[in-house]
Amino acid sequence: MELFKVYPIYDINIEKAQGEYLWDDKGETYLDLYGGHAVISIGHSHPYYVQAITNQLNKIGFYSNSVKIGLQQELADKLGILSGHPDYQLFLCNSGAEANENALKLASFYNGKKKVIAFSHGFHGRTSLAVAVTDNKSIVAPVNETENAVILPFNDEEVLESYFEQHGDNISSVIIEGMQGVGGVVLATDSFLKKIRNLCDEYNAVYIADSVQCGYGRSGKFFAHDYAGVQADIYTMAKGMGNGFPIGGIIIAPHIKPKIGMLGTTFGGNHLACAAAIAVLDVIKSENLLSYTINTGEWLINELKKLPGVKEVRGRGLMVGVEFDFPIDEIRNKLVHEYHIFVGNAHNKNVLRILPALNVKIESLQKLIKALEEILELKAVS
Ligand SMILES: Cc1ncc(COP(=O)(O)O)c(C=O)c1O
Fold it and tell me: Which domains does the chain have, with CATH numbers?
């Protein structure tokens, strides 16, 4: 049987990983500064994480949500403390799209309204409503199209305000990334997030913070949105949550009350997934990764700014985008094939995305800086 070819892929077969290093089937070593789109948060095969999952699998891997799963409460307690939202409620699922889909649905259950506001160049996943709230037409199938999805310009407070003035009674929720990932690492301004908070309060709409990529400590705060100093009603998360084990979730403010049966899932919150997510939180705490991420990110951004030919460096913590005046394909290919360093691209073809593990070593990032120096100097000469 053939694989259904939906991805452009490198012809590299990775078989083993440790920390920020990968090995292919030929024994070649690669430096991973991308973590498969921000998934690897505490480093590949972290020993504490491997042990926690192994221990759990030796006890029980799965039972359904028809019984009490104590690990879910342990996860909720630890997540509440580390994220600074101990009074929120946790619902667990399996991926980022599913987290957003559940958040949008819950918002509509809550206020009985239908319209969702999202922003240009955002990305929220590929399930039905999550994909409908993106302006990338190539990933929206006709069956996903809905008049309930409204896309407005990112960071434009006037347009948002006037849309609320005209349609506020129909707006169920506003969904926004704290830093757009696929869009090319573009930060939502603090003042825009505050405006969303105020308008949602005024019109009884739900502020949904899509933290699937920028959350779970990646920005140096647990949720990037919280730099704005206002709280969202629902935060969605996935990627870094399980360090590669598929798990997603939403945390929900106390004023949104549950009803039995309103949300549900077979796999979400299973024993093994919870063990993985708890191990990630334990490592973030014990290795002090939030402050490490802030310091390391500042160092990285400063070094990147010194490189020749760079137009702009954006980001917070270890979610960093480097924009050039030209497409980055050649640079990225050279990094992978000649320097054995993985970084990412973005929908904006001129942006390199750097999303290393939160405990990446500075010496590993120095390798990237040196490689980029060489590539860019050569490019300037030729
Ligand atoms: C901000 C954001 N939201 C949602 C998603 C969808 O997550 P998943 O691929 O786990 O469904 C992604 C994935 O890239 C993302 O970056």
Answer: 14-46+288-381 (3.90.1150.10), 47-286 (3.40.640.10)
